[in-house]
Amino acid sequence: MLNDIYNKRIIELAGNIPRLGRLSDADATATAHSKLCGSTVKIDLKMSGDTVTDFAHDVKACALGQASSSIMASHIVGSTASELRELRETVRKMLKENGAPPQGKWEEIKFLEPVREYKARHASTLLTFDAVVDAIGQIEAKAMQPAGAQG
């Protein structure tokens, strides 16, 4: 039943999203959109080396997209690029391949596990993870450019 995916903790997370808004000095901005449901997440990311130092987001999504964005915003600062790429892959596997949810600081993602049974909800649940990995890629690409080519 749909009641399984919209459990009490998902509703709490969706109703209390930290770090809403935009960063004026972001190193990268990325948007992820679900064509199926119309949900959109736009994120701003700031990094120092391989580590996230600041994050903000504009979340126009269903409760599942809001909940996953809430979890991301609660734990992203201090996370590394490789950790966040691995997280996105872990969540994707959790939803699409019956994988286990992440552990440690990301363990609240376990509340999204019932979404696995509803393929139409996978895209909105993954939006924030996809946008963050996109932004990390942008930042890394800029860092690889010769100094004169940036800007």
From TrEMBL:
Residues 6-97 form the NIF system FeS cluster assembly NifU N-terminal domain. One of its GO terms (biological process) is iron-sulfur cluster assembly. InterPro entries: NIF_FeS_clus_asmbl_NifU_N (IPR002871). Pfam families: NifU_N. GO terms for molecular function: iron ion binding; iron-sulfur cluster binding. PANTHER family: IRON-SULFUR CLUSTER ASSEMBLY ENZYME NIFU HOMOLOG. This is Iron-sulfur cluster assembly scaffold protein. It comes from Bradyrhizobium betae. The lineage of its organism: Bacteria, Pseudomonadati, Pseudomonadota, Alphaproteobacteria, Hyphomicrobiales.
